[in-house]
From TrEMBL:
It comes from Qipengyuania citrea. This is M67 family metallopeptidase. SUPFAM superfamilies: JAB1/MPN domain. Residues 3-131 form the MPN domain. The keyword NADP does not apply. Gene3D superfamilies: Cytidine Deaminase, domain 2.
Amino acid sequence: MATEVSSNVIEHLLSEARRAHPLECCGILLGHGEGIVQAKAAANVHPDPRQHFEIDPQALIDAHRAARDGDLQVLGYYHSHPNGLAEPSATDRAIAAPDGSVWAIIAAERISFWRSGDAGFEALPYEVAPR
């Protein structure tokens, strides 16, 4: 079953990657069930944002708090690979928790979606939904 991703989310991810280049952009994917309906940009607080990302911890806390209060659920995260491929890097594989989160990776105007699990990352098919 494919994950449904809003066309607004696709536009947001591509725009954020362009804006941040040559640094990595990052943020949070929000929605319900298997539907990603919003992407929220976050500051990349990693000391080397040209090659790594770290989502601002306060943005994560705020997103989880809003979800507890009935807002959109945190389904996963996104980041860009400004000079790489739209697939998990060795660093991504090393830091990902096997919690079933969705990861979107943007590179060269291409977006791929992945699910982190016990066996590492698995490619996640998706369909673009209208706004």
